[in-house]
Structures are given as structure tokens and as C-alpha cells.
Design brief:
Helices cover 8% and strands 67% of the residues. The protein is mainly beta. Strands 1, 2, 3, 4, 5, 6, 7, 8, 9, 10 and 11 form an 11-stranded antiparallel sheet that branches. Strand 7 and strand 8 form a beta hairpin.
């Protein structure tokens, strides 16, 4: 938690510092919302399927030059994945576990992108935008919906429950990764298509590697 707070303060401090030159290089604020198509990658998430989520956020564009921008803000985004079938694993607390059924994971994050963007003017009111850069995120909640039968040390249990995605011995909350995207601005209205690739292993200890992967489509408005 302290890591993302420190990173957030760095972004805020930078924006406050550069806002001194706002008349020449203005800060542009906006809002956005859209849809996610997310999944997990890594050997701890083999065979999982993508799921649909959503995102909303505040955006900040800072002009470094006439065409080059720092693109940042604060987003609330739902990621995750879903799985159906049978699998087994060795849990650090409960030993050997097998499961037949389905699981739908819905982690929710506060996320800060720190992207460099190039705005290519097509007309006076239309820009094509190319963007890329890192992001940092912190899991603030979310559930895993589990339905099926589990075997824990030869004991069979029927399951139909919601559990905390970030609960004890489950996923780690901190995430960091790289993102890229392309979009278009039509006056104050913008549309963006992008992809975030997680670099942090969010799986608990001894559970392989699991990373967030997320494609998104957003519509935004600049004030």
C-alpha cells in the first residue's frame, strides 16, 4: 500500500510542479469509462478464459511539446479471468487440493498509468494518439465466485461460495506492468483502445506465476 501511495504522491507532485507553466503547456483534465477484456497469464493460470469487466477514471494530459504529452490519471478497473474444468495443486497451507467446477475471479484495482503519448493532428479538431508506458496498481477488493466439488486430503466438499480474491494465502495486491494504446480525439470526445501487460507475479508463494493481462476500450471527455 505504501508503494502505490508514494508513487501517487510523486505523480501529484510532478503535476503540481509543471502546472506553474500551465499557460504555455496546459494541463487537460478529463473523465473516461469503458469495457475490459481481461485474463491471467503465466504457468499458474494455464487454460483460463478471458472475462468482461469495466473501467472508469480521471485523466490528465500534460503537453511536453506541441505533439508530445505525458498521459496519466487515476483509474478504477476490474480485471480477472475465469476457469471451468478440473485441476489440482499443492497449497502452502492446506496441502494437496483438487477441484472440479468453475471459478470466476473479479479483482478490482486502483491504477495509475504513466504514459508518453504522441498526438498526430489530422484536422484542427481531430487527433490520432499513440501511447505507451508503465502503470502501477493496487488491489482494493474483489471476489472469486467458486462453484463445484473440491477434494482436500481425500475429503470431498461441495462449494458454492464467494471468497476474497486478495484474502489470506491468495493473490498479492500490488501490480505493475506496461501498457500501450492507440486512440482518436474528436474535439472534446476521445476513444481509446489499449492493452496492459502485468509484470508482477500476483500469485501467492509456491503457486506458480500469475500475471494480469487486460485489453480495454474506453470513451472519454476532456474539459
Amino acid at each position: 500500500m505504501r508503494t502505490i501511495l508514494k508513487s501517487s504522491l510523486v505523480v501529484v507532485a510532478f503535476l503540481l510542479a509543471v502546472s506553474i507553466n500551465a499557460q504555455e503547456k496546459p494541463l487537460i483534465f478529463g473523465v473516461k469509462a469503458g469495457m475490459n477484456l481481461s485474463n491471467f497469464g503465466g504457468d499458474g493460470a494455464d487454460g483460463m478464459d478471458a472475462k468482461i469487466g469495466f473501467n472508469v477514471g480521471l485523466t490528465v494530459d500534460y503537453a511536453l511539446t506541441q505533439d508530445l504529452y505525458l498521459l496519466t490519471g487515476l483509474e478504477f478497473t476490474m480485471k480477472g479471468g475465469k476457469d471451468e474444468g478440473s485441476f489440482s495443486m499443492t497449497h502452502p497451507t492446506y496441502g494437496q487440493i483438487s477441484f472440479t467446477g468453475k471459478e470466476n475471479d473479479n479483482p478490482m484495482y486502483l491504477q495509475i498509468p504513466i504514459h508518453l503519448g504522441y498526438k498526430l493532428a489530422v484536422t484542427d479538431a481531430t487527433n490520432i494518439i499513440f501511447r505507451a508506458g508503465p502503470y502501477i496498481a493496487y488491489g482494493v477488493g474483489g471476489k472469486s465466485k467458486i462453484e463445484g466439488k473440491a477434494t482436500v486430503d481425500d475429503i470431498i466438499v461441495d462449494l458454492d461460495t464467494d471468497v476474497d480474491f486478495f484474502g489470506k494465502d491468495r493473490a498479492k495486491r500490488f501490480d505493475v506492468g506496461l501498457g500501450l494504446g492507440v486512440g482518436a480525439e474528436f474535439g472534446k470526445i476521445g476513444v481509446s483502445l489499449g492493452y496492459d501487460f502485468g509484470l508482477a507475479n500476483i500469485a501467492p508463494s509456491n503457486a506458480g506465476k500469475v500475471r494480469n493481462m487486460n485489453a480495454y476500450l474506453t470513451v472519454g471527455y476532456k474539459f
